[in-house]
Amino acid sequence: MNNSETTSWNDVRAAFKKIWGYNDFRPPQGEIIRSLLQNRDALIVMPTGGGKSICFQLPALLQNGLTLVVSPLVALMENQVQELRDRNLPAALLHSELSTWDRKKTLQQIERQQLRLLYLSPETLLSQPVWEKLSQPQLKINGLILDEAHCLVQWGETFRPAYRRLGAVRPALLKSKPVGTKIAIAAFTATADTAAQQTIGKVLKLQQPASFKISPYRSNLHLKVQTIWTPRGRRQSLLNFIKARPKQAGLVYVRTRKDSEELATMLGQLNYPTAAYHAGLSASERREIEANWLSGKLPFVVCTCAFGMGINKSDVRWIVHFHTPFLLSEYVQEVGRAGRDGKPADALTLVSERTGWLNPEDKQRREFFASKMRSHYQEAKAIASKIPPQGEVTSLAKQFPDSAITLALLHSTGQLEWQDPFHYIRRDRGNSASFSDLNSQQQQVQHQMTKYLTTRQCRWQFLLQSFGFTAEATGFKCGHCDNCDRRLK
Questions:
Q1: Of 32, 108, 240, 443, which is most buried with the most CB atoms under 10 A?
Q2: Strand pairing category for 316-321 and 210-213
Q3: Of 327 and 204, which is predicted with more confidence?
Q4: Beta carbons of 305 and 155 less than 8 angstroms apart
Q5: Degrees (nearest 5) of the Cα angle 358, 241, 368?
Q6: DSSP code string of 136-172
């Protein structure tokens, strides 16, 4: 390294200490930051609590111009932007729940180039007023960050189809910028297996990305799966678990808004101070619950998957999955919120016995989810036969309200290309996959979760193998999961 480079890196470390108060980076934070400052594309798989946000926030703050952060949840955006604003840093957010005045103010800040970080959803990024502002030639854009990038894989086909259009964002923006402009793309996630990583890279069109993949293994996190036989048994198992951990911070994950409200009400009637948290709450309601949990006023929250992303609490001692997640990536994401301080923590998953004779809840949920997916594919197939060979998203949506999902699925099967984020062109199927192939792949992904719940091998070993850390998994025995406990006994 020459002297100017040394000085430059010293400046980076000095800014890190000034803003966040830390003396040095944790591996591989420094390497990721260096890569982004060099305008390289990157794919980062780093466990929850590993300090991912700093890795893209610091480079953005050190550069002239704007960095776009595409984020899946309003609550996640609000938390990260509030933390930056509390430090008087130039960050803002745009989402559908903002007041007209706040939205206008942020658009003016973009126009005046007063921001370094702009958080927004995929849908907001591709909305006409925002896109027009971002496409202005004088606005310098340094990078596009996809936070919680696993959502592109989990939601990008049928739930949030705008994710599938993100690969067309960079080339479209570059057309409106001065010659020689570079826009780097970096995808950050805590959970992505090898197949998911390939999908992220392909959809985003990452160019020779720097790759950083850190094992999800936590030696302090004890994993346990408990079979329950009746609805009453499920509730009693939860109560026994909570009762054994008085005043410890925790989270109870359920599947739906209704589940969270019903369970929180039941626990409240038993004098447990808690609250239901889900995406249907207002921003102020979510903020209040988060603050009460972070301060310890609420020892635990009954929540859907909407809770936890980006919320930093190091002393979470336990996680309970009252209902099992459908996907292994969801599970790893959620249990990873416990024990970030390195002290012992427990993750319990309650699962109905496999036949579902006495307690069909889990089986019904799986079947409902599978049925919903099949319905999406069938509807998409019907619409696909009617849409023109090329067209524009908004006008097509007026004719076919569910066409966004169809376009996302056609893109996923290789039957469609995005000319820009708003115009598509159909292509010859050739060796492309079919919708039935996608359905089979989805079933295989869900089956992976079932295999984890029923495996007799070390649970951490199973997770390491599933997420591509095969070398580390060879001969691995964690000694702190229920299966290892059973063998030791």
A1: 32
A2: unpaired
A3: 204
A4: no
A5: 40
A6: -TTS-EEEEEETTTHHHHHHTTTT-GGGGGGGGHHHH
Q: Are 116 and 63 in contact (CB under 8 A)?
A: yes
Residues 6+ apart with CB under 8 A from 113: 65, 66, 138, 139, 140
| Sequence letter at residue 424 | Y
Ramachandran region, residue 276 (left: φ > 0; alpha: ψ -120 to 50; beta: rest): beta
DSSP character for 126?
Answer: T
What residue spans of 420-481 are helical by DSSP H?
435-454, 459-466, 470-473
Query: What is each CA distance from 13 to 17, 145, 228, 346, in whole angstroms?
Result: 6, 21, 51, 35
DSSP letter string, 21-46: --SSPPTTHHHHHHHHHTT--EEEE-
- Mind listing the pLDDT tens digit for each residue in 273-332? 999 999 888 878 988 998 899 999 999 999 998 786 667 788 999 999 999 988 898 899
Region of residue 208 (left: phi > 0; alpha: psi -120 to 50; beta: else) = left
CA 355, CA 28: separation in Å to the nearest integer?
45
Mean pLDDT, residues 67-87 taken together: 89
Q: What is d(CA 334, CA 305) in angstroms, rounded to the nearest whole number?
A: 8
What is the spatial distance between Cα 144 and Cα 169, in angstroms, rounded to a whole number? Answer: 9
Q: How far, in Å, CA of 367 to CA of 12, rounded?
A: 51
- Cβ-proximal residues to 408 (8 Å cutoff; 6+ apart), any chain: 156, 157, 158, 161, 163, 164
Element (H, E) at 74: helix 74-86
